[in-house]
Amino acid sequence: MSSLSLAVRDSHTMLRRNLLHARRYPSLTLNVLLTPVMLLLLFVYVFGDVMSAGIGGEADRSAYIAYLVPGILLMTIGGTTIGSAVSVAMDMSEGVIARFRTMAIHRGSVLIGHVAGSVLQCVLSVVLVGAVAVAIGFRTTDATVLEWILAFGLLTLVSLALTWIAVGMGLSGPNAEAASNSALPLMILPLLSSAFVPVDAMPGWFRPFAEYQPFTPAIETLRGLLLGTGIGHNGWLAVAWCLGLAALGYVWSRSLFDRDPK
Q1: Phi and psi torsions of 107, nearest 5°
Q2: Sequence-ordered alpha helix ranges (H) in the chain
Q3: 102 burial class (0-12, 13-18, 19+ CB within 10 angstroms)?
Q4: Please, what's the b/e burial string for 167-199 (b: 16 or more CB within 10 A of its CB; e: otherwise)?
Q5: pLDDT tens, residue by residue, 195-210
Q6: Separation of alpha carbons 166 and 124, rounded Å
Q7: d(Cα 111, Cα 76) in Å, to the nearest integer?
Q8: Do residues 82 and 166 make contact, with C-beta atoms less than 8 angstroms apart?
Q9: pTM for the whole thing?
């Protein structure tokens, strides 16, 4: 069997293994999904009129739903990838990775299985949260089919980038709890972006951080694609951030994984 065939076969096996684990322990996924859904409902039904008045000058809850949903979707991806960090850390601490190293399997397939499984879970989580958003009034009537395809591609690319970072955090953490804590910024950073209010409405001392962190261009790009409005330079910035983070996470994860166990 060629090296490529072996890598594909073993990666598929590891993907099945991780999906089976996710199915057997659904509580982790449900706990991660609960936060963005609760924030969505809270900001729409409790703060929606006030927030929309502060942004647009008049109370319009439906307009604020349209503004809010893209940021919630990105937050959902960040929260889902925390489960990847925990899963990788559990494999490391329980000795599963050490066993895999002694077996005749493609070394990269272990990480590829984790990443592919996490990306699939991110996409599923986004679909579920998106369904809740549609149920409470979110509409994208002005978006074209091409913009829908580009939005889906962006969500997948963000999932891939954040998953590789989360895998590196899981490999570097001494246990599952430490990995979960180290990956928490992946869910907190969207709170400090343009997810809930425009960057222009933020205090001057805080605005540069919110504007130049990776989630803001991704949220603005997704918002423009879903609502059929312009995205300006945010599209290129979002893609550049995603590719850079994916490359960084990949190199970091491979270096940690290939390191000889102590």
Answers
A1: -60, -40
A2: 3-24, 26-45, 48-56, 61-93, 96-102, 108-135, 145-172, 176-183, 185-188, 207-212, 215-227, 234-258
A3: exposed
A4: bbbbbbbeebebbbebbeebbebbebbbbbbeb
A5: 888 888 888 888 999 9
A6: 18
A7: 22
A8: yes
A9: 0.88
